[in-house]
């Protein structure tokens, strides 16, 4: 499989909207050519329940071999790849569900998912399952899959409760700890950094503030030391981590100046600058022009 943040084919028409339909989806693995890498966007958390098949789950600097039933929780801001053993691809089976934080927080369950024990960057999101757990989770996922197509008026309340049941079941379990160090770690870290950087864009609202602004932010997401990240990116790409970030911000700033009517202050905020003056100085340093000079020249 390709890295989960690279080009992926989305099997369903899954548009962003304020409706609950856009905030939750459940499917069987391989249904409509779904894969374990489907729906890896910055909006969606995912719970994958694999009952059969061999694969490797790979993060920036660690991986885990999966050769038995497993429950996996993935954070939309943490790049990973799920590489199936091609010998056993046809045997891959199970379910997955994806949801936004807003969907789950519509319930009485408070808290930030990214900081929960199941989804946080330095956590252990993989849980191997015994026969009893497989049976219990199969019943929940199969009910969710049936319910998503029903006409029941309160089905999303029911689905939300079922997701919470899965989360609480996992919290009671002991996570898997048999991680290994992937080969070509520097190249993998650099590739995942680039994928994570790309996922911050495009900026589609002046109310959206860029969350990852500097190398340390990306290192935290990838669960590696910032010096390790910087060395890997420099070795693999010939550019520093900061150069990549700055180039992407400048490119996005130019796009927003050309294609929106946002003010300089709105663009500055959306790109992570506390003050418009900081953005103006940054933009002029890298382009030789102020933001408004560029806009007027178009």
From TrEMBL:
<dbReference type="InterPro" id="IPR037923">
    <property type="entry name" value="HTH-like"/>
</dbReference>
<keyword id="KW-0805">Transcription regulation</keyword>
<protein>
    <submittedName>
        <fullName>Helix-turn-helix domain-containing protein</fullName>
    </submittedName>
</protein>
<dbReference type="InterPro" id="IPR018060">
    <property type="entry name" value="HTH_AraC"/>
</dbReference>
<dbReference type="GO" id="GO:0043565">
    <property type="term" value="F:sequence-specific DNA binding"/>
</dbReference>
<keyword id="KW-0804">Transcription</keyword>
<feature type="domain" description="HTH araC/xylS-type">
    <location>
        <begin position="217"/>
        <end position="297"/>
    </location>
</feature>
<dbReference type="InterPro" id="IPR009057">
    <property type="entry name" value="Homeodomain-like_sf"/>
</dbReference>
<dbReference type="GO" id="GO:0003700">
    <property type="term" value="F:DNA-binding transcription factor activity"/>
</dbReference>
<keyword id="KW-0238">DNA-binding</keyword>
<dbReference type="Pfam" id="PF12833">
    <property type="entry name" value="HTH_18"/>
</dbReference>
